[in-house]
Amino acid sequence: MVNALREMLARKTSGVGEMKYTEEQYINAGYFEVDDVTSNQNYKIVKVRKWHHCVGLETPEHIIEIGEQALRETAIVEDAGFQTCYVCLPCLDKWLNEINGED
After folding, report:
1. Beta-carbon neighbour count of residue 87 at 10 Å?
2. 75 within 8 A of 86, measured Cβ to Cβ
3. Cα–chain-centroid distance for residue 91?
4. What's the CA gap between 46 and 79, in Å, rounded?
């Protein structure tokens, strides 16, 4: 429990959740691919009110903590219905850095 609290505090003070790019750049980066089985996609930068699994490029899979910002995608997926997923800002930053030829 103490280690989990220390890790959470370290993430909060290490700049996690700060926006390197604009909201528009995060939303328009094309992180989520458009396909034939997904419709009504909506994207928004949100501050999460509960923890979520990040579906980003980072491995191992990690958690977006309460209060952090993330890109939320909502969509209707054929045979699965309404779906929501989240990508943390550090994963989006890595994605945008690659697109922009940085790092």
Report:
1. 24
2. no
3. 7
4. 27
Residue 96 · residue 56 · CB < 8 Å = no
Between CA 82 and CA 40 the distance in angstroms is 9
Which residue type occupies 17? Answer: G
- In degrees and rounded to multiples of 5, residue 38 shows phi and psi of -120, 135
Beta strands, E only, the chain: 38-47, 52-53, 63-64, 69-77, 81-88
Distances (CA, A) of 53 to 36, 44, 60: 25, 17, 11
Burial class (CB in 10 A: 0-12, 13-18, 19+), 18: exposed
Contact 45, 68 (CB under 8 A): no
- pTM recorded for the entire structure: 0.76
Give me 32's structure tokens. 């989520």
Q: Which pLDDT tens digit goes with each residue over 25-72? A: 999 888 887 788 888 989 999 999 999 999 987 767 889 999 999 999
